[in-house]
Design goal:
By secondary structure, the protein is an alpha+beta fold. It has two domains: 2-16 and 270-468, Hypothetical protein af1432 (Orthogonal Bundle); 47-235, 2-Layer Sandwich (Beta-Lactamase). The chain has 16 helices and four strands. The protein has helices spanning 2-9, 17-29, 32-35, 48-103, 107-118, 183-233, 248-286, 295-309, 314-326, 347-354, 356-365, 371-378, 400-414, 426-435, 443-454, 457-468; strands at 123-130, 135-138, 159-168, 171-181. Strands 2-1-4-3 form a four-stranded antiparallel sheet. Helix 4 packs antiparallel against helix 6, helix 8 (295-309) crosses helix 13 and helix 12 crosses helix 13. The model is unreliable at 10-18 and 28-39 (pLDDT under 50). The structure holds fe (ii) ion (FE2).
């Protein structure tokens, strides 16, 4: 409990925050998929975002293309029907006006009729054929007199033709034929097509842009969930995805969050059980030495507060906490009578006591989950200037957790009664810590320690431990 309080009081940075901040920056720079640890890159062409966007874009282009072709086809058919009606109307006009001249065999009156029709620029030809198939007049004069024994011929390409029988009292006396060209239809269709292409292209382009944006928006939710699953796979049980929508992705996200919360709760329970076991071990050891009552809890609480100030993540804080609780467990292996002995120790006894970091390290090294912790315990009596033991390591050679525990351990020892001396005053102990900066203690940690002292964190932790011990 006091450890959690220490984290809060020290204003510890939430574990993983720095990582998320870095991830956001990397995302903005476009390197997120390649560089961020725990995030496997997805090639653009293989991404769901790309597949969705391309699929809907192709569908949009298909719809736009078919609509365009249908519109052009409709116009072509419509104008063709209009041309057919026009040819029939002109043929009817020709038939009505040519009946009398045809009966009278008056060629002079036939010419002006066909010519008047022929003035229409779309009319390719107009001719009259008598009941024997002889062309009695043709707008193309060289064809006048030709005999069409097989009746009215099919129109040439690009011409819509209408032929109308000329009837007199039920008897067919001739046929009026008019051919209208389709060039004007082609020109109209081409004009329409050119007029449609740019607006349709712009519309399709905007549509595709919208599809990519929408695909990005929707797929981003799946990507966020996928990132969270990956983070979970890497052991981050504090991951949470925000998605309030009620669709399938939203439901999947809520189920995921629930699953993570339950996993987190289960892991916390396991960790709590483990810490309680460790604490019980430490308490059993403390029972051997009445002078160190509550010492391990205070060292653990203040060490974690320092670790939080250093923005250690949760895993490192847990290791630091374990090492702090168990830092003197090696004293179990020191010859009986030395630990807790009243009065000064002999030279041999001092040597025996100096063996406790290595003994503790060997004990803890047998537990797979405490490998790092055993290393921190081994070096918790090293001095920053290299004058400590067991290896005489100095500065950054000493694990950070060991440097932290050493500082806090020394301060707590100074402020509590020991068999060989009474407790120093708080001011005296703080002064000795300051004097030891850069010599016995890491100066950076000393500064942080005094910061915690000014904030009242150290005193609060000590009081809380005292209360918990009754
Ligand atoms: Fe120790």
């Amino acid at each position: 409990m006091e450890i959690e309080a220490a984290r809060t009081m020290a204003g510890g940075v939430e574990a993983g925050k720095g990582t998320r901040f870095t991830r956001r920056i990397m995302e903005r720079l476009g390197f997120e998929k390649q560089r961020v640890k725990g995030r496997e890159g997805v090639p653009l062409l293989a991404s769901l975002r790309w597949k969705v966007a391309i699929s809907f874009s192709l569908l949009l282009l298909l719809v736009v293309g078919l609509t365009f072709l249908a519109f052009i086809r409709f116009e072509w058919v419509f104008l063709g029907q209009e041309a057919q009606k026009r040819a029939q109307s002109l043929a009817r006009y020709l038939a009505v006006n040519a009946r009398d001249p045809l009966l009278a065999l008056d060629d002079l009156r036939l010419g002006p009729i066909t010519e008047s029709i022929n003035q229409d620029e779309d009319v390719r030809y107009a001719f009259l054929m008598d009941h024997q198939g002889k062309v009695v007049y043709h707008s193309q004069t060289e064809r006048t007199g030709v005999v069409l024994s097989r009746g009215v011929p099919d129109p040439p390409g690009g011409v819509i033709q209408a032929s109308l029988p000329i009837m007199v009292e039920g008897v067919r006396v001739g046929t009026a034929v008019v051919g209208v060209g389709t060039d004007h239809i082609r020109r109209a269709v081409v004009t329409t097509a050119l007029g449609l292409i740019i607006p349709l292209a712009v519309g399709a382009g905007l549509g595709i842009l919208g599809i990519f944006l929408l695909a990005g928006h929707h797929v981003k939710r799946v990507e966020r969930l996928e990132e969270a699953v990956q983070a979970l796979g890497y052991g981050d049980l504090r991951v949470h995805v925000h998605d309030k929508s009620r669709d399938e992705v939203g439901r999947l996200t809520r189920h995921f969050n629930l699953m993570v919360a339950q996993l987190h709760s289960a892991r916390r329970q396991i960790e709590r059980n483990f810490k309680e076991t460790i604490s019980a071990l430490a308490t059993a050891f403390e029972a051997k030495d009445k002078y160190t009552r509550g010492h391990c809890e205070r060292v653990a609480g203040i060490s974690v507060a320092l670790g939080s100030k250093l923005e250690m993540d949760e895993a490192r804080l847990n290791e630091l906490e374990m090492a702090a609780i168990l830092h003197d467990v090696g004293k179990i292996g020191v010859e009986g009578g030395v630990v807790g002995k009243v009065g000064p120790l002999s030279e041999g006894e001092v040597d025996d006591m100096k063996g406790h970091p290595e003994i503790g390290s060997r004990i803890l090294h047998q537990l797979t989950s405490l490998q790092k912790v055993s290393l921190f315990v081994r070096h918790h009596h090293e001095h920053y200037d290299g004058t400590g033991y067991p290896r005489g390591l100095m500065e950054s050679e000493i694990p950070l957790a060991s440097r932290i525990i050493h500082l806090v351990d020394a301060f707590d020892a100074m402020t509590t009664d020991r068999p060989y001396r009474e407790a120093l005053s708080r001011e005296e102990a703080l002064m000795r810590v300051r004097e030891g900066s850069g010599k016995q203690f890491d100066p950076m940690l000393v500064d942080l320690f005094f910061l915690l002292e000014e904030e009242g964190v150290i005193e609060a932790i000590c009081e809380e431990v005292e209360e918990s011990k009754g």
